Amino acid sequence: xxxxxxxxxxxxxxxxxxxxxxxxxxxxxxxxxxxxxxxxxxxxxxxxxxxxxxxxxxxxxxxxxxxxxxxxxxxxxxxxxxxxxxxxxxxxxxxxxxxxxxxxxxxxxxxxxxxxxxxxxxxxxxxxxxxxxxxxxxxxxxxxxxxxxxxx
Length: 152
Description:
The protein is built from 8 helices and 2 strands; from the N terminus they run ααααααααββ. The protein is mainly alpha-helical and 152 residues long.
């Protein structure tokens, strides 16, 4: 508990008692739509708070109506992608988690150029779960051929 972020911990306690997801005080989109929900997910997962992990994932990234990077209003630049990945996978996120798959779907939908970047390749080497989640999300989205023919 003593090493948990105080803002996330307060939000988690409020969720436990009121069953309401609380938006962060900071309105900067990178924090509001990415770093805050990622931190809250990690904490909720750590303490097994049912419902909060789902709400954090639902509030992370772009809105469900957004289908491509061109109509998305909350797409952080490539410079912030490393920060988002480190926040997600640096906490020990496992392959196939709701958070990891959402992050991967986000990259596949909005940041295809970043996926080819040397930084992304080095992050996959550092966090193998990122590579596995990206592959799993790609299969689910119909972007990967499961018969070994690769990326469509």
